[in-house]
Amino acid sequence: MELREENWQAFRPKLFEEVVMYSTLPTDAACFRCGDHNPRIRCHQCGASQYMCHVCDSAIHKQQPLHDREIWSDGIFKAVSPTTTYDSSSDSKPLAINRCIPFSLPWRCPLCHDGKIVVSSRESTRIVVNLRGRFDLNDALPVCEACGEQIQLETPHDVIREQYWPGSTSRRSTYLFDQDLFCFYDLLQKNNPGLSETGFLKTLEQMSAVKGRVGSVNATTFSKAFHEWRYCQFSMRKLRQSPLFECPCCVPIQHSVHLDGNKKLYRYSKVPRGLSKQYYGEFIVPNEEVDKHLEDIGYSSEKMTGVGLCGSTRWKAAKAASKTMKNLDETGLEVAGCRHALALKALNMFRREMFGYPHYLHTQNFQSAKCIWADIICQYWPWAVVKAESCPNLRSAMCAQPCLSVMHAKAHSWHCQILWGGRWQEGAAGGAGEEMEQLFSYLSRFNITTKYMSAAGREEQLVEAAMFWNDKKIFNLPKYLKARLQKVHEVFPPVVLL
What we know:
single chain, alpha+beta, four-stranded antiparallel beta sheet
């Protein structure tokens, strides 16, 4: 560590010297394209040492306007926008020009199949936003030399073909977003839970301002376009039949299901719910279905005592009501997952963790599961058996083996640990019943932003996060299962029959 610090201290003056030299225009600089000895422009994407005159700059960046350019003026390099160059008759005086959005065009007219396409610029402007910020460019006006017909470039086909995403549904959207920008922000957000969209946009705006461009991006337009793009990617995954909320190891026979609630994923009631509903319907169950189930089993009118109490230990999270929830709308998320820690199904909680929520997931989605794990299974299972006696359609779900989660069992009474403990149950296969705690360690970090979102926005964010978590788990499953198998062989060596 000390040696590395000493090396950097010795190297620092040399780096600073190079930066100072790079910040000036060499006395022997010449245009790399035509050899002119009065170059005033350099471009970071064309090459840091590639200086050019205004004529070559116009020829090059007419086709590639999304570059970061600088003009030598008043003894320093100044960042300029794509629509700015310099007047050759004066000492680098800024001059406004038109630059068109770089759409690909056919070589021949698609109408007459004879004339060439000539591109000119309209006075109207459009905003292109990519990873380097905002670019204000002119609309292109392609015209056929032979027939004089204009070629339309505003269709969704043209926008998607160029890897852009429209900012609105209008034929000529003001904003065009680079899809690489959305992909980058999507991965950044999922790898850094709690990242603010406002903070990300401010970074883009500051990047634009530093590079001499307009430092402003419409937050509402960006948010709506991003969510539409993200849902399109979700639909593409469904079209490819990629596994979303399904464990490849637990299909078709579901061995274990862990039911648990997360009260950290709440949402404030002061935030409007919004008029729109979430796009995704595969993970979070609609609230109406859960309410109907609770009504069918008579849970809404039922008063229960002793819930969350096992011996001398009281589970505060299991209380049916609490004063701390008076400012909340959704109070958390109830999730069902498999023994490989994949999220399979979830529902919104509007009260504290109560038996009715895991009961819906258990009886409506995992009736054929062999083992049902829960933190308070000693209280939940007798209650569920009573409900099944009055509802014949629920009896098939009670054939599973109830198992008490291993870690939570430590807080239960001794007789409870023996009667219900997962490690004591036949067929539990050494499960832990704490797999959803791994998921919650990731999902809970999204609460920084989701508690201020609309109801639909919160659900969409949590669904995307759960899919991202599942993707990582599935990717690591071969390595994980191999390690588990090796451990089993170490503990129980294979028996060789002679």
